[in-house]
Structure formats: structure tokens, C-alpha cells
Amino acid sequence: MTTTAPAISASFLAGKHQAALSYEDYLATDPGKAPAWRQIGAKTVLTPAQQRLLGGFTRDMKVICLSGIWCGDCVQQGPLLERIAEASSRIDLGWLDRDEHMDLTRLVRINAGDRVPVVIFMAEDFEPVAIYGDRTLTRYRALAARNLGPSCPVPGAPVPPEELAATLQDWLDEFERVQLLLRLSTRLRAKHGD
């Protein structure tokens, strides 16, 4: 789901971003759950075209991922987000546990629920830009195909490689959309003289 950001102050988001953990520190909060994240991360590879796109970003983006290390959707998507952030020096991604930051979680509810992962995109000065979560269209299509039919998958079943690649592209598309929004922003163009 893509939305415009709700009325959340830049100073509030700056404080949350400062409190956020790096990916490795986030995984260290539950070493028992970290291997599942690392397994998906090991399967996640950006194509050369995706790397070039991310390497060409010119606006700094502050990003917070509200997550649950226990959450299956976070396991399936979190490592993809990390790969995207690793490929661009312009993306500053921090990780927050949803249940430890309920003041923020309540502000970004989706369908009246405390969903995860929820990604909050901000400009360089922490002005909110967009919120995306809890699943991409590819994830929803795959879950609908598995869960709305005659049988349901076993929890923790492997993610097919084509689903993983398509979900990565969904997330990359949102990062690109936000980057273009920032790049074309009248406010930021005036600030940077470009």
C-alpha cells in the first residue's frame, strides 16, 4: 500500500530515526530468529540494472522500517529492503521494533491494524514523504493464490525465487518513486539549486 504520509512532525521522525537500529543490530535483538532473515538475504541479489538505478539516486532519503523480527512478512521482505539500502549511499535505513515504538505505530496503522513491515520514507530533513506496507502487490497476489484456494501453505514454506524477485522489484519501485518525488520537489530543488 502506498499512501501519502500522515501529519507526523519532522522532529518526531528525526528522533525515531536516531533511535533506530542498524540491520545487524536489529537482527541481534533475537539471535534465534536472525537465521531466517539471513537465509532470505543470501538469496537476494540486485540485478546490474537495479544497482545502477540505486547508484544514481541524488537525494538523501531517511527511511524507517517498523518491523517485528518474529513476523513472517518481515522475514520475507526485510532483507530485500536492506539490499536496496546497501546499494545506495543516499538511503539511510533504520529499523524499529513495532511493539517498542507504539507511539509511531499508532500513527501509521493500515486498515486499522498495527501491521509490519511498514516503511516510512522521509526527505533529508525528516519531512515525511510516504508510507508503504505491509505487503507489496506481489506478496498479496502470492498469498491470495495460496490462501484463497483449496489449500493453504505450511507456515514458513520457502518463497519461490520468482516471487522473491518480484517483491524486490515492488520495493525498488517504491524507493524509486520516492526518490523521483524528492528529486522533483520544488522545495528541495530550491534548497539545492537544481
CATH homologous superfamily title? Glutaredoxin
Strand content: 5-15%
CATH topology: Glutaredoxin
What kind of oligomer do you see?
A: single chain
CATH class: Alpha Beta
- Total number of distinct structural domains: 1
Brief summary:
The protein is α+β, with helices and mostly antiparallel strands and 194 residues long.
Question: Would you write up a description of this structure?
Answer:
With 194 residues, the chain is of the alpha+beta class. The chain has one domain (2-192): 3-Layer(aba) Sandwich (Glutaredoxin), CATH 3.40.30.10. It is built from nine helices and five strands. The chain has helices at residues 10-19, 23-27, 34-43, 48-55, 72-86, 102-105, 137-147, 161-184, 186-192, and strands at 2-4, 61-67, 91-97, 118-122, 128-133. It has a five-stranded mixed beta sheet with strand order 1-5-4-2-3, with helices on both faces. A hairpin with a 5-residue loop joins strand 4 (118-122) and strand 5 (128-133). Helix 3 packs across helix 5 (72-86). The longest helix has 24 residues, at 161-184. The chain is globular. The two termini are 31 Å apart. The model has no long low-confidence stretch (mean pLDDT 92).
Keywords:
194 residues, Glutaredoxin, five-stranded mixed β-sheet, 9 helices
List the helices and strands and how they pair.
Blueprint: E1 2-4, H1 10-19, H2 23-27, H3 34-43, H4 48-55, E2 61-67, H5 72-86, E3 91-97, H6 102-105, E4 118-122, E5 128-133, H7 137-147, H8 161-184, H9 186-192
Parallel strand pairs: 2-3
Antiparallel strand pairs: 1-5, 2-4, 4-5
Helix pairs in contact: 3-5, 5-8, 7-8
